[in-house]
Design goal:
about 220 residues; alpha/beta; 2 domains; 6 strands
Length: about 220
């Protein structure tokens, strides 16, 4: 089994210790570094080149979002998960602009954190439920200048999958509901983003809501 290398950055030692201890119990996780600041995280990142970076937002010298941007400029393949107590619209928008792969709250279940790391390694984006709701509300209320973009002939199946994506279902869950394979779901999702010229799931959700391509429950 190939291990997933993880770098943890948080300015609270007890948090770093707790996360590291739990994740180290998983056979497929290898903790390669623990940093107490953004600058220390970047130094460790360049040395260890981890698969996944777990970043707190409130860190000295360089906060988590600034650190995420720096990591992304160094490597666009590294998976970045924000792990924070904060739920703030501006902070969330800044994090999404940094091209993160996930945003989890620190009160999330430990098992959800482990699942999230494995999910982002498969190309998925993961968000705690309150974060997903904030994304939907933020995108729904925004007046984006891209509304004149056409839908590029989205098929009925793509429309169906798009609705499930906006509702927060994973590829596996969508596959079970539609009686198709997760690989087929991933293919449709990739086709959607290519047609709409979007880079990630967050942009796809925003586009779908802004252009009334889905219903919001």
């Amino acid at each position: 089994m190939t291990s997933i290398s993880v770098l943890i950055a948080d300015d609270h030692e007890i948090v770093r210790y707790g996360i590291s201890t739990y994740l180290s119990s998983a056979k497929d996780i290898d903790i390669v570094g623990k940093a107490s600041s953004g600058e220390e995280c970047l130094n460790l990142f360049q040395k260890e080149k981890p698969d996944v970076c777990l970043l707190d937002i409130s860190m000295p010298k360089k906060n988590g979002i600034e650190t995420a941007k720096s990591i992304r400029s160094l490597n666009d393949e590294t998976k970045i998960i924000i792990l924070s107590m904060h739920i703030d619209k501006q902070m969330l928008n800044d994090a999404l602009e940094a091209d993160i792969n996930g945003y989890l709250l620190k009160n999330t279940e430990k098992s959800d954190l482990l699942h999230g790391i494995r999910a982002v390694m498969k190309g998925q984006q993961i968000f705690s439920d309150p974060i997903s709701e904030l994304i939907k509300k933020s995108f729904l209320n925004s007046n984006n200048s891209k509304k004149n973009r056409t839908n590029h002939s989205i098929t009925d199946r793509e429309q169906e999958i798009l609705q499930f994506i906006v509702d927060g279902f994973t590829s596996k869950e969508i596959a079970q509901k539609l009686y198709i394979s997760p690989r087929t779901v991933d293919t449709h999702r990739a086709n959607l983003m290519e047609k709409l010229e979007l880079k990630n799931i967050a942009e796809l959700v925003r586009y779908a809501i802004e252009h009334d391509l889905v219903s919001i429950g």
